[in-house]
Amino acid sequence: MSRILVFANQQGTGLSSGAKEALAFGSRLASSTGGEVRSVTFGPFAEAGAKEAIASGASIAYTISNPLLTEYDVELFVNSIQTVFQQSGADILILSFDKMGKDLVGRLATRNCASAITEVVDFHTSNDKPTWIRPIYGDKAYGEYTTTRSKVVVGIRQKSQELAVIDEKAVGEIIPIDYSPSEEMIVTKLVVKIQSALSDIRLEDASIIVSGGRGVGGPEGFNDLQTLAKLLGGTLGASRAACDAGWVPSNLQVGQTGAVVAPDLYIAVGISGASQHLAGITNAKTVVAINTDPEAPIYKRANIGVVADYKTVIPALTEKLKKVLV
Ligand SMILES: Cc1cc2nc3c(=O)[nH]c(=O)nc-3n(C[C@H](O)[C@H](O)[C@H](O)COP(=O)(O)OP(=O)(O)OC[C@H]3O[C@@H](n4cnc5c(N)ncnc54)[C@H](O)[C@@H]3O)c2cc1C
After folding, report:
1. Which 3 state secondary structure label does DSSP give 221?
2. Are residues 27 and 132 in the same domain?
3. Residue among 238, 243, 235 nearest 264 (CA)
4. What are φ and ψ of residue 257, in 5° steps?
5. Ligand 1 within 6 A of 291 CB?
């Protein structure tokens, strides 16, 4: 029987999309192993999050309401999750492998002498012991993994899970944890938060993404992509090459080591389509590629291809759309 704890991170008062996926995965695992799911939520809205977690399948929802946990801080979050993981007696800790999860999984595994397994999309069980399934070789195959330690920290790939059906009448217990992280635990502090003018919608939540690569040629070209993205009600993305060149901030990176996205429309501009980039857009519904090279690998993934210089296509498309949309 598995004892499962899900870290249910919040966005405002509600659970984040990643937390909902982690809870759905945890509930499925609990049903297969005869176990139960518990959750932990933080900050001033922890109780609201706990109620949502119960409606999503948790039987016990731990809360730490300390206001220091309003904003993400790696040390505070690791210490707080660690405290609840130990107190809950759970042996499986599940969290979304989103940007925050990428920060947390390894640290939490180390603190608990646990195995860590990331980008998990599924599992099967034998004698109540899970075998974890995750994509490998840039999503070309699936690997199956068992772990050797008594505890395991599992990072769930974003956009890989169907969400649980919400049961508002579900009954569960909310247990406040008496733990007060202190300011002294904060090793680095965010003094000024500069809102990036380029990214107003979270990539992971965007339904339309206009993404630029090395073929865009420099930061100026991204202004045109940004205009198009705004017009479509979407947001800007980028390849690693464009981020590494410093043309756009690294939080716009899509791919294996960036954001995993699932938009309805993904417009790839001057992006060759390396496997590491494609790993981030597996779940994109329609991919439009604009590339001067007709042999570019992106065309194997694209639903619509435009073999042309983006400098001719993007301004023309933007003007046309302005007439229709504005
Ligand atoms: C471990 C590892 C992890 C990685 N993780 C990621 C990741 O998360 N995300 C990611 O993106 N990459 C990642 N990479 C890098 C990846 O392998 C590629 O190097 C990168 O994606 C290439 O970026 P690009 O397509 O922008 O550039 P390029 O491969 O250089 O392609 C540029 C494209 O632009 C086209 N082009 C040029 N001029 C124009 C024009 N005027 N109009 C239209 N098209 C034009 C060219 O034909 C070309 O196809 C990773 C690599 C490694 C080793």
Report:
1. helix
2. yes
3. 235
4. -105, 15
5. yes
pLDDT tens for 209-260 read 999 999 999 999 999 999 999 999 999 999 999 999 999 999 999 998 898 8
> Has this prediction a pTM greater than 0.85?
no
Q: For residue 76, give both structure tokens.
A: 């505070």
Is the separation of the CB atoms in 287 and 301 below 8 Å? yes
DSSP annotation string for 31-71: HHHT-EEEEEEESTTHHHHHHHHHHTT-SEEEEE--GGGSS
Residues 176 and 226 in one domain: no
Nearest residue (CA) to ligand 1, atom 53: 276
Nearest-atom number in ligand 1 for the CA of 257 is 8
Residue of 203, 240, 252 with the most ligand 1 atoms within 8 Å of its CB, for mutation:
240
Q: Could you tell me if 41 and 8 are in contact, meaning their C-beta atoms sit under 8 angstroms apart? A: yes
Q: Give the CATH number for residue 265.
A: 3.40.50.1220
Ligand 1 proximity of 215 Cβ (cutoff 6 Å): yes
As beta bridge partners, residue 40 has 7, 62
Measured CA to CA, the distance from residue 289 to residue 306 in angstroms comes to 6
Range of the domain at 313: 203-325
- According to the model, what pLDDT value does residue 192 have? 55
At residue 199, the pLDDT reads: 57
Q: Which residues of the chain have pLDDT under 70?
A: 1, 189-200
Residue 1 has what pLDDT?
Answer: 67
CATH of the domain at 73: 3.40.50.620
Answer yes or no: is the C-beta of 211 below 6 A from any ligand 1 atom.
no
Return the beta strands (E) in the chain as ranges.
3-7, 10-11, 14-15, 36-42, 60-64, 92-96, 115-120, 122-126, 129-136, 141-145, 152-156, 173-176, 208-212, 235-238, 265-269, 286-291, 304-307
